[in-house]
Amino acid sequence: MNQTLLYRDDPYLRDAPAEVVALTDEGGIVLSQSLFYPTGGGQPGDSGWLEWDGRTLEIATAVKGDGGASVLVPAEPAQLPAVGTKLVQMLDWERRHKHMRIHTALHLLSVVIPLPVTGGQIGAGTGRLDFKMPEPPQDRDAVEEALNRLVDRDLEVTEGWITEAELDARPELVKTMSVQPPRGAGQIRLVRIGSGSEQVDLQPCGGTHVARTGEIGALKLGKIENKGKQNRRVSIVLA
Q1: CA 67 centroid distance within chain
Q2: Which residues contact 218 (CB under 8 A, 6 or more apart)?
Q3: Do residues 52 and 86 make contact, with C-beta atoms less than 8 angstroms apart?
Q4: Burial status of residue 237 (CB atoms within 10 A of its CB: 0-12, 13-18, 19 or more)
């Protein structure tokens, strides 16, 4: 199913028209073009609302369907808009923007702690990465300061694309041991932080990000937890 992924084209878009192209057996809604990021890569699916014919339907989340399409999951059982219905979709923008800020901040955390990442989770205002790290960082304050220095540099965040073969030739780009970039489409999206001599990070990622690191705002380092002999979980919070 060819669905236009508006969240990828413009992560700052908050509302857009669409047409219902399918309803799933589980009660999900597939639109011709979707603002809603579907759960994946540690980032939760977006929530928001659909409006048509004077009706409003609350959307709890979005999940990946056939062909990577974003399938919208209603918050509660309700009459769904029929296939062919033209409607307006609206994001819970405040929640999405927090996901964007945290997601970009976690990329910066992987720069400050340059160790293999074994897992991660993004929330609305909090996030964490699990690192292959036998010993916790000796100086928490230094990690927090380094993180905020990268934020304050207001580096540009851009995207590009790489072929699967090119990625295979540059395995160092993949920092996550647990989540491999989605394959099968021939091309993989790269997220770059900084440009030219100012570049600090480049890694495969399908998530939504802020346009510049300054937009993240101040960050606090949260708990550093022991998750086994080789693993440490490092949490961050929007200050």
Answers
A1: 19
A2: 148, 151, 238, 239
A3: yes
A4: middle
Helix, strand or coil, per DSSP, at residue 69: coil
pLDDT tens digits for range 190-217 = 999 999 999 999 999 999 999 999 999 9
User: 41 by DSSP, 3-state: which?
Assistant: coil
Give the β-pairing of 48-52 and 55-64.
antiparallel
**Is there a contact between 39 and 64 (Cβ–Cβ < 8 Å)?**
yes
Displacement of CA 131 from its chain's centroid (Å)? 19
pTM for the model stands at 0.94
| Lookup: tokens for 77 | 């059982």
Handedness of CA 127, 36, 6, 190 (dihedral sign): positive
Quote the crossing angle between the two packed helices 140-152 and 93-112, to the nearest 10°.
Answer: 120
Cβ contacts of 131 within 8 Å, gap of 6 or more: 113, 115, 116, 117, 118, 231, 232, 233, 234
Q: Is 238 exposed, middle or buried (0-12, 13-18, 19+ CB in 10 A)?
A: middle
CA angle 63, 92, 223 (to 5 degrees): 80
Tell me which amino acid residue 35 is: L
| Residue type for position 154 | D
Could you tell me if residue 100 is left (phi over 0), alpha (psi between -120 and 50 degrees) or otherwise beta?
alpha
Q: Mind listing the pLDDT tens digit for each residue in 86-144?
A: 999 999 999 999 999 999 999 999 999 999 999 999 999 999 999 999 888 889 999 99
Terminus-to-terminus CA distance in the chain, angstroms?
41
